[in-house]
Amino acid sequence: MTRENPPSTANVPPPEATLQLISGFWIARAIYIAAKLGIADHLHDRPKSAAELAAATGTHAPSLYRVLRALASVGVFAQGDDNRFRLTPLSETLRTDVPGSLRAFTIVELGEEHHPAWGDLLHSVKTGEIAFDHAFGMPIWEYFARHPENAKTFDDAMTGMTLAVNDAVLSSYDFSSIGKIVDVGGGHGSLIASILKSNPRMRGILFDVPAVIEGARARLAAEGIADRCEFIAGDFFESVPGGGDAYILKWIIHDWDDERALTILRNCHLCHEKIGFKP
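Request: output the structure for the sequence above.
Response:
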């Protein structure tokens, strides 16, 4: 295996391999359409025809059929001899009501926010500036503040992605010696909920911006651990809650440039050690 001959294209002629890479976004956008329309949810009870699905989703049946047929060709759905479509293991992940659902993540990444930003990637390459800011005229967190429905979808996406990796996190690290854990930028609390449920004597603090914290209360109450978790709203560039024996950050640091990333880490370190931070 070499960089010149990666495994995914090792036995494919270069022109064909290049065409596969170029046209990859066709399938990605088709997956977005299926996720946005909730096709997997409509198929959870039985196989359905494109006409039935179009009636349920308010779409044009022949066009929807082409999208579903394209997705069936790569295993996202399965198409029967009767031209009815059914779920596969891949499309099961696009159902709304399954643990670790990727439906919201698909909508966020391939739809309203990230897709237009990726379309402006050349601007970033030429200038070093953030493509999203250029495409939307504002940073992404300001955009979410102005568009609460999009922000909710983003929060749901992060919850689904976290549920998909929680078991791996819990099996990779022993949290049992920690008395109180602080989840910095913890969203709706999926990770800290999993940790607290696996460690009954532990207490926790979920820390995020006010709007996110409000959405987390009901989720952790449903998990049965809200009485062991404090909900604190704030700005991790200013400070983070003190009193934790350990501080966790999942998918937080990569959002920021080096200077702001160090600020977040410094604030966590100061709370934990009560001493100066030396990067």
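Confidence is low (pLDDT under 50) at residues 1-6, 274-279.
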